Amino acid sequence: MRRQVDAGVVGVLDVMNTHGPVGAIVPAAGRGQRLQGEVPKALALLDGRPLVQYALETLARVDEVQTIVVVAPEDHLESVRDLAARARLGKIAAVVPGGADRQASVARGLAALPPSAQLVLVHDGARPCVTASLVRAVAAAAARDGAATAAVPVAETVKAGRDGWVARTLDRSELYHIQTPQGFHRSLLERAHLEAARAGFRGTDDAALVERLGHRVRLVPGEPSNLKVTLPGDLEVAEALLRRPGPPLRVGLGFDTHRFADGRPLILGGVEVPHARGLAGWSDADVVVHAIMDALLGAAGCADIGQQFPPGDPAYAGARSLDLLARVRALLAERRWRAAQVDAVVMAEAPRLAPHIGAMRAAIAGVLGLDADAVNIKATTLEGMGALGREEGIAAQAVATLEPLRAAGPPR
User: Do 195 and 213 meet the contact criterion of CB atoms below 8 Å apart?
Assistant: First the structure.
């Protein structure tokens, strides 16, 4: 009977709280000669984006991963740094040059990883289809058992051969295709690399170095779609996998209200609207943008704006809400979502907003990377009813729709 692979996964956040921050090393320094490209494999385009970007974005949206080190070709370090900046991959702590082989490259990445990272994941930059759930599963298993690797059981018959003839048939019940990520306690991985270097031992993966020390490596169920791009045809397969139907659209609801206050400008939808009074608030009190931010965050399953940008925090005193909206957009991108459409209604007796709605739509659309017709803003009165009807303040409600970032192609 085939032996079952036991992930040994318990609550990931509990394990991370016990073992501290997780760091990730992404070896991506290979030239990819078999890929037959004009640039190193990490920068080969996959559906219009550099191959390594997919793995980096997946790692970046895993909350447990606090820092990432990329090991890149020495003559393309700036290209990788530019990629990270364009994709807003703020978790990347360093981009370092690769070594003579993969093992040497991982050792350089390990040396560049901040000391706070006591649990280390190693994931090939040429595996673009890895999922966040697999990253978390390997991290949890490594935290508990010291070492873990993603693995897929061999499904076909495997034979050993000699001189063009079958020598014997192997028992496939004990055979696995090994993938990344692989995860390790940092001290264990450092010792494994040190001992291998002293002995001149070269392993095909980091798990082999740890095995050499006599330490067991936990097998975590991998994913058949987590392929490694090696040959030109692999790019076509990876693109097909990435273009599979993704998660459905998600919808969020947001609401905000602010009292009027003397001596402040009235900012609505990123536009200064002429009026005798503005709105009270720690930031610029843009009630329209605040409602939209809450709708976007809600759709993505994130904490609301009060937790993201706490009132009273000096960092947000007088902040432009459009700048905060840009940060929400980046947060969504880390989780592989982007705004598809926004609809908001502003509830106010005064001032008259119709002349300013076009500018509001354009301002919000510009920050979210949308066409203006994907942002709709309406204004209504309360016909004198309640606090808003007595002109004590303004309220806004918004509905936002998110679409999967990867399924829709490159970010706009």
Answer: yes
Distance CA 49, CA 43 (A): 8
Given this model, what pLDDT does residue 409 score?
A: 35
User: How far is 137 from 182, CA to CA, in rounded Å?
Assistant: 10
Residues contacting residue 79 through CB under 8 Å, at least 6 positions apart? 43, 72
Long-range contacts of 239-243 (CB under 8 A, 24+ apart): 239/46, 239/47, 241/129, 242/46, 242/47, 242/54, 242/128, 242/129, 242/406, 243/47, 243/407
Cα–Cα distance, 269 to 15 (Å, whole number): 43
Alpha-carbon gap, residue 326 to 80, rounded angstroms: 23
Q: Check pLDDT > 60 for residue 319.
A: yes
Q: How far apart are CA 330 and CA 111, in angstroms?
A: 29
Q: Two tokens at 56?
A: 């980096």
Q: Cβ contacts of residue 284 below 8 Å, gap of 6+?
A: 265, 267, 318, 319, 320, 321
For the stretch 175-226, pLDDT in tens is: 999 999 999 999 999 999 999 999 999 999 999 999 999 999 999 999 999 9
Look at phi and psi of residue 170 and say left if phi exceeds 0, alpha if psi is from -120 to 50, else beta: beta
Sign of CA dihedral 129, 132, 134, 138: positive
Cβ neighbour number for residue 160 with a 10 Å cutoff: 9
Ramachandran angles phi, psi of 31, nearest 5°: -80, -20
**DSSP conformational letter for 229:** P
The answer to whether the Cα torsion of 45, 51, 53, 57 is positive or negative is: positive
Task: Let me know: does 68 contact 113? Beta carbons within 8 Å.
Answer: no
Q: Which two tokens stand for residue 161?
A: 């051969």
Is residue 141 within 8 Å of residue 95, measured between CB atoms?
Answer: no
- Token pair recorded at residue 271: 């536009």
Residues 341-369 pLDDT 10s: 999 999 999 999 999 999 999 999 999 98
Instruction: Tell me how far apart the alpha carbons of residues 335 and 58 are, in angstroms, rounded to a whole number.
Output: 8
Could you tell me which of 394, 397, 395, 396 has the C-alpha nearest to residue 261? 394
Q: Tell me the pTM.
A: 0.63
DSSP result, 259-287: EEETTS-EEETTEEE--S-EE--SS---H
